[in-house]
Design goal:
heterodimer, A: two-stranded antiparallel ribbon, about 0% strand, B: about 120 residues, mainly alpha, Helix Hairpins, 5 helices, CPA3_antiporter_subunitC (chain B)
């Protein structure tokens, strides 16, 4: 039984989604809610058990249909994948819980789509070859297209048109890149590719490099790396709150793919092609940070502000990638946990604030008084402090780790000022947002509904992870350290992955 | 054969990109279709082109790489689904926004001063 654990994170949401389309569940929202929350909790437990096995018995490999790698399809559950799976599951549970507060009634099939989205994300994290990465990208994308327009409305439709067209072009580029890599390397298994890439002939090397850099465009588009980030603020700001919260992990899928592909395949062992993406990513990461900060300052409403904060976190993560050391990767992974959860929480808080301000929603204008200013104020304050990186919250630890990783490298000269100044800009923007939303109101009358228990509970669960990340910082950083070293020393994994020999 | 094949893929890609850069959803959808044709052909050729080669052992003298064919099959299926989705989305956008421009408003009206009605 335990050898099948690695596929559970894909199977559970798949069946949960399918079952919810069938009569006993499809008829009633109440039953769907209970079922969805239970299944999301079950997913967390399954990933926990899988994690226990990975920690004690090493990386879990699952060969689908028992076709052996490199030609069969494999799922690889190493620590990095595990970390991302857990993050997705927690965020997914909170998003589903939040949706129970009423967002699920805006349109049909909310919960099945949510489960299919989870399935696609989990699959993308688990897969061991690039073509299945593409397939799972498409699974998560088509679910996200439908979720984005869920509820309807002019703004959502027009944002969705841009988002879908961009991603379809991205998928086409992805396939072009895969074809040129397959044509030169003769394999799509990530481990196998990393072995072959060093032995390329000079003529084929150019094609493989073109393919590799095309992949960077695709992943950059998913990760919202400059200059491919312009779709993000509008898309995320127009999605309904639980969907936007779940989308907080989607940029991380792109970042995860960049970490995987450019550390394992085009990493230090790639011969002539070693670290070919670094020269591109380093300046783009800094520019992403700067433009994200400008966007944060310029946002007219809270949801766009949070979307721009997502871009800032992408920039920070890419800086840790561009530093190219185990330490930096580990710091990046810690920051990734923090930024995903807090980003998700902020999208939810923005929606909760918006619900109580009537027509003004979350725009930074004078509006009605909030019904529950104390509760919302505390939630917003904690999340804002964390995301801006103020002590003693998790954002502070994450940023210190990142800065430490950049310490005494040549890149420090650029990384330190940019990261610190964007932190300051974030604080300024968030305090301005907070004062406008909470203190500038007209009249004392409010007829807003009090917040639903589900919504408050889901945000509190997400925010509880902040002190947890601080209290358990030592074990968490230990774990990210191990995950980073596994990523950088992929050769040790090779024996497990390609037992039949090389070639 | 390689030259002709490369020319076809290049031409399809060229047309696809040109059409995707247009401002109306119908041409964009057409462009995406062209792009996906180009992609499928290119993916097919990644296992090297060969006349009368069978992808199954024991059925012919010459063999061809079966993997690209499997990849193309998957890519075609996914491509169809995505094109179908974007067609429906484009129709919905046409209904919701009142025109078929990708941006939701015609380029001419946005250059002029937007009137109060269009703003809403």
């Amino acid at each position: 039984m335990t050898q099948h654990l690695a596929i559970l994170p894909i199977i559970i949401p798949l069946f949960a989604g399918i079952l919810q389309l069938l009569p006993p569940l499809s008829g009633s929202v109440e039953r769907q809610r209970v079922f969805s929350v239970l299944l999301a909790a079950l997913l967390i437990i399954a990933i926990g058990v899988l994690g226990w096995h990975v920690m004690h018995q090493g990386v879990q490999i699952y060969a689908l249909g028992d076709w052996q790698p490199p030609f069969g399809i494999v799922l690889v559950a190493d620590q990095l994948a595990l970390l991302m799976l857990m993050l997705t599951a927690v965020l997914g549970l909170c998003a589903i819980l939040f949706a129970c507060g009423g967002d699920d009634k805006q349109g049909a099939y909310f919960y099945p789509l949510m489960q299919f989205q989870l399935m696609g994300i989990n699959g993308a994290f688990l897969t061991g070859d690039l073509f299945n990465l593409f397939v799972f990208f498409e699974v998560l994308l088509i679910a996200s297209y439908a979720l984005l327009v869920h509820g309807g409305g002019k703004q959502r439709t027009s944002a969705a048109v841009h988002y879908v067209i961009l991603n379809l072009v991205g998928s086409a580029l992805f396939l072009f890149a895969l074809a040129s890599l397959y044509g030169t390397l003769g394999t799509l298994n990530i481990a196998h590719m990393s072995l072959r890439v060093g032995e390329l002939a000079a003529g084929e090397r150019a094609i493989a490099q073109a393919g590799g850099l095309l992949l960077l465009i695709v992943f950059g588009l998913k990760a919202a790396l400059l200059p491919l980030h312009f779709w993000l603020p509008k898309t995320y700001a127009s999605a309904s709150a639980p969907v936007a919260a779940l989308f907080a992990i989607m940029t991380k899928v792109g970042i995860y793919a960049i970490f995987r592909v450019y550390t394992v395949i085009f990493g230090d062992g790639a011969g002539e092609l070693a670290n070919m993406a670094q020269g591109w990513i380093w300046p783009l990461a800094l520019l992403t940070l700067v433009l994200g900060a400008v966007g944060v300052l310029a946002s007219p409403n809270l949801r766009q502000l949070v979307a721009n904060l997502v871009i800032v976190s992408v920039g920070t993560l890419m800086v840790t990638f561009a530093l190219r050391s185990e330490e930096a990767t580990a710091a990046g992974l810690y920051y990734m946990i923090h930024s995903t959860l807090v980003g998700g929480a902020l999208f939810l808080i923005a929606d909760m604030i918006g619900q109580q301000r009537g027509k003004a929603f979350d725009w930074f204008v004078m509006a009605r008084k909030l019904k529950q200013p104390t509760l919302l104020g505390i939630l917003f304050f904690v999340a804002a402090m964390a995301v801006a990186g103020l002590p003693p919250l998790s954002g502070f630890i994450g940023k210190v780790l990142v800065l430490q990783a950049a310490h005494e490298t040549a890149e420090m000269l650029w990384a330190w000022p940019v990261i610190l100044v964007t932190g300051l800009v974030t604080i300024v923007a968030l305090s301005r947002a907070g004062t406008t939303l909470f203190w500038r109101y007209s009249g004392d009358k409010t007829d807003a509904e009090p917040l639903s228990v589900y919504q408050v509970a889901s945000v509190i669960i997400l925010l509880l992870t902040i002190p947890m990340l601080v209290i358990f910082a030592a074990p968490v950083t230990d774990f990210t350290q191990q995950a980073a070293s596994q990523l950088h020393n992929y050769n040790e994994l090779m024996q497990v992955l390609l037992p039949g020999g090389q070639d | 054969m390689e030259g002709l094949f490369a020319f076809c893929v290049g031409m399809l890609t060229f047309c696809g990109i040109y059409l995707v850069l247009r401002a109306r959803t119908f041409t964009v959808v057409l462009g995406l279709t062209f792009l996906s044709y180009a992609v499928n052909l290119f993916l097919f050729s990644s296992g090297r082109l060969r006349f009368e080669g069978a992808p199954i052992l024991g059925t012919a003298e010459a063999y061809t790489d079966p993997l690209p064919q499997a990849l193309v099959l998957t890519a075609i299926v996914i491509g169809f689904a995505m094109i179908a989705f974007i067609v429906i989305l484009a129709m919905r956008a046409r209904a919701d926004l009142g025109n078929d421009y990708v941006d939701g408003r015609s380029p001419r009206s946005s250059r002029e001063k937007p009137s109060a009605k269009e703003k809403s």
